[in-house]
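Go through this fold for my students:
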Amino acid sequence: MKNHKGVISRQSAFMIVLVPQLIRLEIEATALAMRSTAEQHE
């Protein structure tokens, strides 16, 4: 039982680290896409 709980906490820690990085990547990708479309319009 104890080992199973450790796996869950490790997964949640992994998510806590990973999710903000994914969000930041998404924001950067969106910003790049918006910038490239803005350059095309000029």
Remarks:
- Residues 1-42 form one domain.
- The radius of gyration is 18 Å.
